[in-house]
Design a protein that fits this description.
single chain, 440 residues, alpha/beta, Dihydrodipicolinate Reductase, domain 2, 12-stranded mixed β-sheet, 6-stranded parallel β-sheet, 13 helices, 31% helix, globular, binds nicotinamide-adenine-dinucleotide
Length: 440
């Protein structure tokens, strides 16, 4: 069977042009995937993202969905409508894992089920694509890493951005020295709508009959049935991981991929519940600051992240890496590279002195290298999510190592989860990114 080959190509000239002019490059990738091998999958947690994951997985040649598991009957009914009335459906994920005809599972449940289902799936000999964050608490990471190592199966976490053309280009540029020495990075995720702030609709038929509430809470605090806690689980700490577990984790994943980092060793967070006072237990504004120690891959630098669910300028996201020679704004589809060209801003004094000494010479205009380049995806690009599933199935089919495996996924999840610890404990948290342990 042919291995899935992925080669990043850039169309357009490879040099940049004059100052203040932006040159656009189109990013594309040659992909060859064999459709010979038939892979049978199931989705566990067939809600919003589980469904998107399954639909994307089904775009990859040779993939067939044969089963779905969910705790709400309405979602199982929708699964049958979407993927065929003959698919196997159940409320108990162990029935999925017991089936020998399933090669791989997608885990799209709320965060508090990720660890257990991941471990059980790997122990059952299934490959697994688990949504981010990989775990609900930092104490859970080691079990997933061990299960992956023991099983030898493909396990990939669902921060799809790092498989994108945009992130790959940023990595290539960073490694070629395009921004010089990394000094600082920053990112944010901003939203300004009820749905963006997790106020999802509650189905009118939600009840103890249609929802398997006891199973849902079987690994956490016992409580009476509460549809808000089931359908708006992100708002509650027993099930969700706050804005950092939901969104910082994507920024960590992309950053760590681009600069080959294993993560920070110092984490500080503050924030507050400023607006969505609907009974939620987590802040809607969160600011995180992170110290990254020097490693072989990068120098010591600082990172600052922000999520704001009350952003009157409307929602958007960005990730910037700032170096001694320029900066890159990185998304899944674009990279904007900006270089400082005219003079060394730190040396304004020296420049003035030089001007005084040789006015005639300094008045002569110079040739300048390019100030900015914009790399963007070619029309028709299928996107990060498709690429991420391509990478996953290349792992399942031919054992090709995936980037976002259990260790990578945990190293992206941990600093996000530790933001919550820092916020709620009101203290600076220390993390050992090598041994993946909280140390203070
Ligand atoms: N990668 C991304 O861009 C992205 C985007 C959105 C969500 N997510 C992640 O996907 C996961 C699901 O989020 P969502 O927005 O789809 O939530 P959702 O509430 O829409 O779906 C979760 C589904 O899981 C089911 N479920 C709960 N416990 C279960 C269990 N033990 N067994 C089987 N099914 C169970 C629920 O009934 C529900 O249908 C989360 O971890 C979230 O962080 C990732």
């Amino acid at each position: 069977m042919a291995a899935g080959a992925a080669l990043l190509t850039t169309s357009g000239p490879s040099i940049l042009i004059g100052q203040n002019e932006v040159r656009q490059y189109f990013l594309d990738r040659e992909q060859k995937i064999s459709a010979n091998d038939h892979i049978q999958i199931a989705v566990i947690g067939a809600g919003g993202m589980g469904t998107e994951d399954a639909n994307t997985a089904l775009q990859i040649p040779g993939v067939k969905l044969i089963a779905a598991c969910d705790l709400y009957d309405g979602r199982l009914e929708l699964a049958r409508q979407r993927w065929g009335k003959d698919i196997f459906t159940t409320r108990d994920y162990r029935e999925i894992l017991a089936r020998p005809d399933i090669d791989a599972v997608i885990i799209g449940t709320p965060d508090h089920w990720h660890k257990q289902i991941s471990v059980d799936a790997l122990n059952a000999g299934k490959s697994a694509y688990c949504e981010k964050p990989m775990v609900h608490d930092v104490t859970e990471g080691a079990a997933v890493i061990q299960a992956q190592q023991k099983s030898g199966k493909t396990y990939q976490v669902g921060s799809q951005g790092l498989s994108s053309l945009g992130n790959e280009k940023a990595k290539e540029l960073y490694e070629s020295g395009a921004i010089g020495q990394l000094i600082y990075a920053e990112g944010f995720w901003a939203r300004n709508s009820p749905v963006g702030a997790w106020q999802y609709a509650i189905p009118p038929d939600a009840s103890k009959e249609t929802v398997d509430w006891d199973r849902y809470i079987s690994n956490t605090t016992k409580r009476d049935f509460d549809p808000l806690r089931f359908f708006r689980w992100r708002n509650y700490r027993d099930y969700g991981t706050g804005v950092s577990g939901d969104l910082f984790v994507h920024l960590f994943s992309s950053l760590h991929f681009v600069i080959s980092s294993i993560g920070p060793n110092k984490i500080m967070a503050t924030g507050g519940l400023r607006y969505w006072k609907d009974g939620r237990e987590v802040p809607d504004v969160l600011l995180g600051m992170f110290d990254y120690p020097e490693t072989k891959a990068h120098p010591a630098f600082n990172l600052s992240l922000r999520v704001n669910f009350v952003d009157g300028t409307s929602g958007s996201t960005y990730l910037r890496m700032v170096g001694s020679e320029g900066a890159m704004d990185v998304t899944w589809d674009d990279v904007y590279l900006r270089k400082n060209l005219t003079s060394d801003p730190m040396d304004a004094f020296l420049e003035e002195k030089a001007n005084e000494m040789d006015k005639a010479l300094s008045e002569r205009k110079r040739m300048l290298p390019p100030a900015e380049a914009h790399y963007t995806v070619e029309k028709g690009y299928k996107g990060a999510h498709y690429d991420h599933f391509t990478n996953f199935f290349n792992g399942v089919r031919n054992g090709k190592k995936v980037v976002e495996d259990a260790s990578f996924g945990f190293r992206a999840a941990a600093p996000a989860l530790l933001c919550n610890d820092s916020f709620f404990e009101e203290k600076t948290v220390r993390w050992d990114p090598v041994n993946m342990k909280r140390v203070g």
